[in-house]
Amino acid sequence: MAAAWVVRQGRGGQFADEMIRSGYIGVDFIGDYDIRPHLGGGAEVFRGAMNGIYQEMYPEKPRVAVGLAMGNLWAASEGIAEGDLVLAPKPDRTYQYGVVAGGYEYHPGTDLPHRRPVDWKGSINRDDMSPTLASTAAVPMTVFQLEAHAAELATLTQLTEASQPVVQAIASEVQEQLAFQLEKQLEEFLVHNWASTSLGREFDIYAEDGQPVGQQYPSDTGPMDILAISKDRSRLLVVELKRGRASDAVVGQIQRYMGYVQDALLEPGQSVEGVIIAQEDDLRIRRALSMTRNIRFMRYRVEFHLEEAR
Q1: Count of other CB atoms within 10 angstroms of residue 73
Q2: Do 158 and 200 lie in a common domain?
Q3: Can you give the C-alpha Rg of the chain in angstroms?
Q4: Are the beta carbons of 219 and 260 closer than 8 angstroms?
Q5: How far apart are CA 18 and CA 20, in angstroms?
Q6: Tens of pLDDT along 6-45?
Q7: Distance set, CA 49 to CA 21, 107, 144, 159, 310 (Å)
Q8: 219: containing domain
Q9: Residue 170 falls within a domain, yes or no?
């Protein structure tokens, strides 16, 4: 099955019905500005051209907000491939789903001028989703990919081809699904309990206009689990979560995210740090981290308590 995405059609899905009737998904971010000359070269080329343009239009916006807006705009306009599945949340707790049917179109003078044609197929109810999928689909980001949910979405949307039966898809993805669900549960728990953690005493999850947008923050090498900012606004923190034991490969992964933050998001005088959170480490990751000065390792612990019924 192709990649699957959530694309929010305005705040609270206010434009969802209009876009569904018209056969599109759409986003705004930069209003009536023709971005077509800057498409076709990938996320880094787009960001290099558009970040400065957006910053000139909105000079009060910090670079993190600029990166978020232009990252979402690129994902909607070019990152989503033709044939990908898209879900549009509606105010009634349903998700309209369809298949992207073409490339970028510019529709100036409309509420959502940056569009992709979509062949809308039907709708699914949030209550029919697994808790993990429902939680992931509720992330307050305008455009983001639904990773490791292909089998469940195939079942819910019934878009799987006959040559790829759902049972086979589910069987081949069970291990990946379980791993992803454990990491998502860890992410959700950390986000919901952030204020009571040691990290929460130093940092806040990044927010824009009062909305937390630091969860699954987009970069040109993939989404960061959590992007946070210190309470004095001087440090950005990249958080990477791993279930169970972390391998030394995660060090390179978080360094790529930190490199993106350093190049694209830092304001003058700011610095970037990283933290890897897992249940266990090993000698290889300790050796790798010993050569870095701004990445730390933290362990999480799962506890169960049994009490006599009274």
Answers
A1: 25
A2: no
A3: 20
A4: yes
A5: 5
A6: 999 998 899 999 999 999 999 999 999 999 999 999 988 9
A7: 33, 21, 22, 37, 65
A8: 193-299
A9: no
